[in-house]
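Hey Z.,

So I finally got round to the protoporphyrin IX containing FE thing we talked about over coffee. Here's the setup:
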Amino acid sequence: MVAVVVIFFIYDYWTHTYFKRLGIPGPPPKPIFGNALDFSKPLFEVIDEYENKYGPVVGIYMWRRPLLLVRDLDMLRDIMVKDHHRFYNKFPLPMSSGSFDNALFLLRDAQWKRVRDIMTPTFTGKKMKMMSGILNEGADDMVEKLLQSCKEDGNIDSLELFGSFAMDSVASCGFGLKVNSQKDKDHPFITHGKRFFEFFLIFNSPLFMAVSCMPCLRPVFKFFNFTLFPKDVINFFTDVTEKAVALRESHPSKQRVDFLQLLIDAKNGKSKMANENDEDDIHNKYFKDAGADENILIKTQKYMTREELLAQSMVFLVAGYDTTATLLTFASYLLASNPDCQDKLIAEIDDIAPKRDDVGYTTISKMPYLDQVVCEVLRIYPPAVVTDRECGETCSYKGYKIEKGMQIWIPAYTIQRDPTYWPDPLKFNPDRFTKENREGRNPFTWLPFGAGPRVCIGMRFALMEAKMALVRSLQVVRFEISPLTKIPPDVGLTSLLSKKSSYTLKITQRH
Ligand code: HEM
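And the result:
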């Protein structure tokens, strides 16, 4: 018995000296836990401390698993864009997530390439234009809620308001369903949708940590058919999508331009590769800045299985709901705290899109100040604190050896608040994103959507959706700080910045 314990601790010590042997600095690991115990604090705080103490490349141990934190911009350019062929996978989840395993952000290698290649045309500027009408309709319920709150005490919970808007947008664009989350909180789509997000709490659960660190347990979980997401939630969304697909396939008159239809067309081989260069599309440049050359993707055979289609519908919910709600929540908070910027934005709205029916993809693409505001909100409060890559081939950069299989963390949050790139980083200043100020700036200093071929595929949609929601809101109300507003606002502990908390603001009716 003593021999087993001794061997265990020698092995533990050996694995925890991995970075020392490679000459990569990092916080000293504790036996068994590595550095995992540090993560009881918010993730961005821990990352910031590590970077300040150990520099731009830091070796960390999540229990015994080593991972590399990289904030060196040249290395990030190589990892995310230049040498993407070595780093296009993300680190796999330790447990199966049932049929959701086919979701784009969980896919790997050739399957990822094929599905991404098929889905890319779904997100072009032209498709966004076609879909903006659906979003504008969905914003009507949000505007009604704002006007009703003005008549009451004038306080709103911005996360609830914008979360409901984001949920309705997902329901209508991703699943072809009309729901009104502002009123009907008990709709099964909403209750099941919200339960999906309990998933993110899993990252801090002992079960998840144990499985992450002890890969030998994976077959055990597989044998007992444990899944990461609640099975009834997956079954609910699978069922909703199956019925919608069957209806549209049997009744062509029920078809409309939304994500679901675009996916069905892709599955049936009807979608075309789009390599469009839309002059009107202000959002095209983000793809270029992010080095997202979609031609990099190997053109594979174009088919999508039924399981893949069902999983991509859920992707809109998981990837698009919380992130967009977070962006809008912090946007309204920062506008309320900076009335001059809000005045300037309202002036632009009154000039270009003063009425409901003026709001659409083309008009919002012509609003430079709106774009500056949204970019600056995403800089201070990126909804995804970190993103990651897995190294597929041992290589070296700037003298740091990165071995095959290593997980790399890319800390957007700390880079975007680094005073070297962003003087006075906590000051909300949309002028950082004027055309002149953008020029010459390293694109890897602004990474809210990631970069390279694995950049957020929903970026255009998210920007359109958030901008339309802001315009529709500011056409009718102003955001103000209320005595109930928490300053600074609460933020989450994990890789997502949102938190189940109240984000109260006061609103006053315009005109
Ligand atoms: C403000 C809103 C959003 C933010 C901040 C955001 C952020 C991100 C980030 C940081 C990544 C990882 C990129 C990388 O590793 O380089 C990502 C990936 C992804 N996002 Fe988004 N996202 C948003 C909205 C959306 C929406 C609305 C959708 C779908 C309609 C979406 C779908 C995806 C998908 C499918 C991926 C995985 C892409 C792949 O692995 O190929 N996102 N997003």
